[in-house]
Amino acid sequence: MTEEIIRSIAEAESKAVEIRNRASEEAAATAARAEIRAAEIEKSSEEVCKAYRETQLKAAEADAEKEYRAALAEKGEEARRYAERLLKGTDIFVSRIVGRITRGDC
C-alpha cells in the first residue's frame, strides 16, 4: 500500500512536470506570436502615420496657398483703389502741364 501511494505521488509529480513543461512551451510560443504581431502593428502604424502626415501636410499647403491667393487679391484691390484715388484729381494738373508745354510757357 505504501508503494502504491509512493508510485501515485511519483506519477503525479511526473504529470505535473509534463504540464509545467507544456505550459512553458505554450507561453513561449504565445510570447513569440505576440512579438511578431506587435512588430506587424508597429509597421502598419508607422505607415498609417506617415500617410496621415503627408495628407495633413498637403492639406496645410493647400490652405496656405488659398489664404495667400486671397490676401494677394485683397491687397491688389487695395492698391488699385489707392491708385485710383491718387489719379482722380490729376487730370486738371496734367492738362495744365500739357497746355504749358504746347504753348511754350515752360
UniProtKB/TrEMBL annotation:
Coiled-coil positions: 9-42
Domain of life assignment: Bacteria
Keywords from the UniProt entry: Coiled coil
Descriptive protein name: V-type ATP synthase subunit H
Source species of the chain: Candidatus Scatosoma pullistercoris
